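Wed. Picked up where I left off yesterday with Dynein heavy chain coiled coil stalk domain-containing protein. The coffee machine is broken again, so keeping this brief.
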Amino acid sequence: MGLIVFVPTQLSSSTHAKLFIFRTFRKLSNGNISISIRSIEFQSVALQFLKDVEDLNVSETILNGIVVVFQFMHASVVEASERYLQELSRHNYVTPTSYLELLSSYTELMNKKKGSLTEGVGRLKTGLSKLQITSEEVKVLQEQLKEMKPALQVAAKDADEMIQIIAADTIVAEETKEIVEREEQEATKKAEATQLIAEDAQQDLDEAMPALLAAEQSLKSLNKNDIIEVRSMKRPPAGVVYVIESICIVKNIKPNKIPGMRPGEKLLDYWDPGRNMLSDPGQFLASLMNFDKDSITDEMIEKLKKYVEDPDFTPQKIAKVFSATLC
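Structure written out below (tokens, as returned):
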């Protein structure tokens, strides 16, 4: 039975001419597959089709090999369709158009692969170009490094010298640190000692404060007549003399030096200077009331020790002696 071959319009005129001879498509059997594969008509169509493909740069041997593969594939489909009909009584029509579709599929696949390869080649060229650019940049950097090498050597030398200076300064700093730590320890010890002294002084002050308050209270009880009576004494008792002497010491009134019992001996006499101090009772009392206790020096305190440590030098005993003298 004859079949009409429908050829796509985009095929060239030479391909039309070759395909036109296949108006009759005969079934292939197992006995004639090899004959069909090698048929001149199929071979001519495939060769003509492949020659019209652009950029198909292959040798004649490879081209013939491709054609043989096309013929074999087409004949294999014909054979399988024949078995399909015999075993299942179903038709699968294999026409010259199927052969053309096979050729077109090859062309499409080849173009796709060619595009992929072209893209890969483009990427490779881009990579090579970047490598070339990088190589040139590396050369420039190497030249710059070569020019900078003397400056880098100087900088390295300066860095070494600076490291040595820092090392020396570190040693000095460590020594200074040790000195500071020792001084800090000494200062801490002194601070602790000072704190102990301050605590002792505060304790002494706390102990002396009642006596000071009592003395101030006794001072307030004095009047001008008491001062006049003391000044008028010709032979004052020892307690009264002690009081006058201690007042002269804190008011920095110098004593008279009088001959002692032994030859060349000089005694300190505060009585006459003290009586002169009492010449104005009102002024004397005012000076005692306004006396600056902070003006007492260490030297004065040292001189006052013998009075303070004397068990008879107390306000009660002095008052008792003074009263007895008046009587």
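Quick read: The two ends are 181 Å apart (CA to CA).
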